[in-house]
Amino acid sequence: MMAYLIKNAQIVNEQNIFTADVLIDNGSIQRVDSNINVEKNHQLIDAKGQFLIPGAIDDQVHFREPGLTHKETIKTGSLAAVAGGITSFMEMPNTNPQTVTQELLEEKFAMAAKSSYANYSFKFGGTNNNLDEIKKINPKTTAGLKLFLGSSTGNMLVDDWQVLEDIFKHSPVIISTHCEDEDTIKRNTEIYKAKYGEDIPIKYHPKIRSEEACYLSSSRAVELAKQTDARLHVFHLSTAKETHLFDSDIPLDQKQVTSEVCIHHLWFSDEDYDEKGTHIKWNPAIKTAQDRDELLKALLDNRIDVLATDHAPHTLEEKSQVYTQAPSGGPLVQHALPALLEFYHQGKIRIEDIVQKFCHNPALLFDVDKRGFIREGYKADLVLLNTKKPWTISKDNLLYKCGWSPFEGTSFQSQIEKTFVNGELIYDNFKFNDIKNAERLEFDR
């Protein structure tokens, strides 16, 4: 394994920015200091003028393997993630078959061990009838439990309240939820289908998957967590109203209930549906510009704890169907960090806060062992950022298997220059070193 010495980097870590050198050897950060001497076995990288940050940890991706690999694979998704500065991911259980038994969970881990370029873990899926399997989850080797309280695939909608209460009482790991009230969505859908048939104009998507549907489900989940003393993490908030369910005045490690926002809910609004159409059809729906702005405000004042992508690709053919048939979701891992850096350039967020919410906090929230920070002895998952190197997203530089992005045609001011995974330089300015040294995430629980 190569030893690297990164010189003169602007290190962003634990709410500080400082100039220092970083020595990487044997997969770990050996030293963080000023003026580290270069040895013969060191591969020297001069990072003057660039930010060095910990690799991002994405707590919500859909890499579609097994069973849906025409959209994405663990290999293609992890390559795109590494190119986007994401060095670790937690993948969701709604694949085919769904990850709802311990045997199927281990099969996915075996797939990732062979093909992933980024560090990996998987969420176990809850259903109305697999509580015994949930109780078997090993907290040290599995990221957590995912519950669909709306908008599920297959049989993963958990809509039996007694079952849900039992799961909250007995889950050995943190519970992550997709919160949208299914009955509200069904009623709204029927109203618009009666008027438009199957081809409902996309602009009504946030009316169908409404603020009411989101808040009703999120508030119930938060209430249940408090009643059962469960550890709850609510995925992808999309409304200003929901943000007021969460505390901002206590440290992350003391929170029983936490929340997340995704990049698309911070970037787009309902004003973009006319141009982007079903390419920005997500569940939960992108809502108003006011919601978008309030979500950013909640992220900055710590009501929202974590940034994520909810990377969920579909083919263009699938996305081009009429409203009721077009699936929700889109590819994001390659462009999430560059998009966040646009907010930094616009003065909307400090780079220290991007690192806090996309690197540090996912590690803290999920108890990820020795990742998410630039600390001696930690795994060398590192990203060099050039914030003065504009580029434009086009089909020629996309890495998603689905072959499209809602950001196509967008120009970003910052590029990911280099990405290290466990001390190996995997990505270097649009070129890859074909080295698979990703590791299964471990959890200090």
Highlighted features:
eight-stranded parallel β-sheet; 22% strand; 445 residues; Urease, subunit C, domain 1; alpha/beta; eight-stranded mixed β-sheet; 14 helices; 18 strands; single chain; TIM Barrel
Write the layout of secondary structure elements.
Blueprint: E1 3-13, E2 16-25, E3 28-33, E4 42-46, E5 51-54, E6 56-61, H1 74-83, E7 86-91, H2 102-115, E8 119-125, H3 131-134, E9 144-148, H4 161-170, E10 175-178, H5 182-196, H6 205-208, H7 211-228, E11 232-234, H8 240-243, E12 257-262, H9 263-267, H10 273-276, H11 289-300, E13 306-308, H12 316-319, H13 336-345, H14 351-365, E14 382-386, E15 391-392, E16 411-412, E17 415-421, E18 424-428
Parallel strand pairs: 1-4, 1-5, 6-7, 7-8, 8-9, 9-10, 10-11, 11-12, 12-13
Antiparallel strand pairs: 1-2, 2-3, 5-14, 14-17, 15-16, 17-18
